[in-house]
Write a structure and sequence with these properties.
alpha/beta; globular; single chain
């Protein structure tokens, strides 16, 4: 977890982080709160963990709200609850998603059920969340959406082929919405490589060590690396939209 250095760069802003109690999401919540934002932590399960995170964030007034990105009605209710609490939304971070390791050559193992679950969580749910929050983000004239993607989107190397395809679709969604929602909302993607979290089931320390050795900068991506890129979209890259920030230590090379 990053060192707490409080600032007021994002004072008065409300940042909504979907998947906010996960590895990348929780670190994004910390950095956004450190920068002065009020944070809405969207969690699928683990209410106690999400509420504890809200209490631990720098500043005050942060809240945790349930949301299932597989269910559009849940997303709409989440949007209503967030706006009821704060009356505005300035930053939306889409950090939720799921995957399951399936060897790319094992076509039969990549079942329809896995494909549907991956695309619902990594594409449709993100779009539905953006659709719900877009009016509030546009209302202030300088809204920001940051989608957490993956280098799998352009390398074709990832936990399974459906995941690669869903993240590629997310990158194209980022491009399309950057045009469609401009100039009131900017849309960015942040694309990590192998991240030091438990997101992909079955990837232990041996896998992480091998990935680090094969990465030019000789370590894998940390949640803080990704969160710092997310924060940069809000604080420094203010004339950027429709593009991705690759945060992978050169792993894609």
């Amino acid at each position: 977890m990053s060192e707490i250095v409080q600032s007021d760069t994002l004072k008065g802003k409300v940042a909504v982080v979907v998947g906010g109690s996960g590895g990348i999401g929780s670190e994004a919540c910390h950095l956004l709160a450190q920068a002065g934002a009020s944070v809405v932590i969207g969690y699928r399960s683990g209410e106690a963990k999400a509420r504890a995170l809200a209490e631990a964030l720098p500043g005050s007034g942060h809240i945790a709200l349930p949301v299932s990105i597989e269910d559009t009605a849940s997303i709409v209710a989440f949007n209503a609850a967030a706006l009821s609490a704060y009356g505005r939304a300035d930053i939306l971070v889409n950090a939720a998603g799921v995957t399951k390791p399936v060897p790319h050559a094992d076509l039969e193992a990549l079942t329809d059920e896995i494909i549907d679950q991956v695309f619902v969580n990594n594409w449709r749910g993100v779009f539905a969340t953006i659709r719900a929050f877009a009016p509030a983000l546009a209302a202030n004239g300088d809204g920001l959406i940051v989608n957490v993607s993956s280098i799998a989107a352009f390398t074709g190397i990832g936990s399974n082929i459906a995941y690669c395809g869903a993240k590629a679709g997310l990158d194209i969604m980022t491009n399309s919405l950057a045009r469609a929602l401009a100039p009131a909302i900017r849309v960015m993607a942040v694309s990590p490589g192998v991240v030091d979290t438990e997101f992909v089931p079955g990837r232990g320390q041996e896998f992480k060590d091998k990935a680090a050795a094969a990465t030019p900068l000789k370590r894998i991506t940390t949640p803080t690396d990704v969160a710092e890129a997310i924060l940069a979209c809000a604080t420094h890259l203010k004339f950027s939209t429709g593009t991705r920030l690759v945060v992978d230590g050169g792993r894609h090379l």
